[in-house]
Amino acid sequence: MLDAAGVGPGARILDVGCGSGTVSAAAAARGADVYAADAEPGMVEATRRAVPGAGVRVARLPELPYEDGNFDAVLANFALNHGGRPLTALTGLRRITRPGGRAAVTIWRVPAALLGAAGFLGVECSEVFWQHLSGAEEWWAGAEQGIGATGQV
Q: How confident is the model over 118-152, as pLDDT tens digits?
């Protein structure tokens, strides 16, 4: 995802739907200037812990509180799956990406036409398959720490 978005030293990036901060931490490790947003306050706190120097705030798609063209790269790792209006969300991501900047999005099976309709140019899509292996301890660790709606329940 970071390679696709061209994330490197000095890049100003936004990790939308940052979750526990995995993508933000990887971008920071590359020397990027990291900003992150998530609708879930518990996830925001988890990202703040994972990436202490990042500018992290509570925000949700498509109403992202950032100026137009503010980021070199915008990353949304499975964030679009959690909203009901993917085209509107993608248009919001496009708005805050600078001209010539890049966006990298992971989502369950979305046609490239949706990204084009949001104003992105040179859209490339590929399917990725992997096997997710974890034990019960890893699977429930987030919920036990109160992260996400399951943790609140």
A: 898 888 887 777 777 778 887 777 677 766 554 44
Tell me, letter by letter, the H, E, C secondary structure of 81-149: HHCCCHHHHHHHHHHHEEEEEEEEEECCCCCHHHHHHCCCCCCCCCCCCCCCCCCHHHHHHHHHCCCHH
Q: What letter would DSSP give residue 40?
A: S
Strand (E) or helix (H) holding 22: helix 22-29
CA dist 124 and 118 (Å) reads: 14
Amino acid at 131: Q
User: pTM higher than 0.85, yes or no?
Assistant: no
Q: Specify whether the CB–CB gap between 92 and 62 falls below 8 A.
A: yes
**Whole-angstrom Cα distance, residue 33 to residue 107?**
24
